[in-house]
Amino acid sequence: MSKPITDVKPIGEIVNLNQLTIPTYQRPYKWQVRHVLQLLNDIEFAIRTQPVYRIGTFIFEKEGEGVLNIVDGQQRLTTLIIILYELGDLVPALLNAKFAHVESQKNIKANQFAIAQWVARLSPEEHNEFKNYLLTQCEAVTIQLNNLADAFQFFDAQNSRGKALDPTDLLKAFHLREMEGKEPDEKRCCANIWDEIGEDSLKSLIGTYLYRIRLWSRGKHAGPFTKDDIDEFKGSNLDKSPDYSYLIPYKLNEQFFPFSNTQTVTYPFQINQVIINGRRFFEMIGHYHQMKKHLFDGTISLAFHEFNKHSEYPEDYRAGDKYTKILYKSAVMCYFDRFGLSEFEQNYPLLFMWAYKQRIENISVRYLSSNSYVHKERNNVFRLMQETLNPEKLSVIRDGLRLSEVKKKITSVRAIFINENLDLIELNGK
């Protein structure tokens, strides 16, 4: 890790740093009115009780000579600048930043109105006292690093207040940095893809679905997705990589699918492909977000939509049932990604029974149970799909589907096994 430059500076000096920039990988501005009023009241109380008030820590990444990216503290710093603007006579350079995200614009507008009302109640003397105290007596620790990865690592280690970075944040930052030299519109388009999906959906899509599908398809074990696993989604930068033979198809695709805001032809992504750094990664995540919605919102096939109601039963709120449903959806996504609609109607019942077999045969199913179940002898349907060229070959899945025992009596699920003559009742000849 590069050596951090640490200092303690008054807020007036920090907000007037001309190089301050909110990088595109940052989350939208999310502070609510209640957060802002709490900060204002804390400062007002400190004026009466403390000669100096420590607001917190800001972590910056120095990028080149003219840019100081805000890695940690964007929410507080943006709020402080709005406060100072409403106090008058101060227009920090950062106030000219463009907040493209609709959520940021909405929160800034609401908070600015609340701050203006709060400031309006101050007498002229109180107004000047508050402003001078904020500029000169409020201070923060500033930490500057010269490497983005080091800045994030330092942030995770020091962040005792606020929300720690998720692995998806690190991936967003990495792939935006891989777009160095690209047009701002292209970077902004990629950041928008990410932000429109939303934090919770990104965590689920990448960590629960794509990460595990990729590892299971290679016969590897997959635990919870952490920042130590993000290399799975780092691949090749086609602008910088040598002309390796395995990259030739991807470089050819670049010629047929150039960047365009109005592009209608879909890039031929595969879940298990080499990750292409930069714009293609963002497009890939957007592609699988749409695929997941398309598969399970009922538009792809009426029969498939009706069939999926077998996974909706009174006890489906239990953790084990949720994990089982995720396993089933993962298998369907893997199938559709590889074979599309070919033989789809014949095979999704097999994938359903394969996933729910572990639910019926076990009293308890945990998150890691799915990983163990996938890796039982000759039971990895993800690797089978990856190594199979023809979906008709997947009929072998049926050979391992007969129930050996029943520990969870889920009528709607067992109905599928009974219909396929694979239920325990049939096994016993009853």
From TrEMBL:
Residues 12-175 form the GmrSD restriction endonucleases N-terminal domain. Coiled coil: none annotated. InterPro entries: DUF7834 (IPR057156), GmrSD_N (IPR004919). It holds the Pfam family DUF7834. Residues 186-405 form the DUF7834 domain. This is DUF262 domain-containing protein. It comes from Chitinophaga oryziterrae.
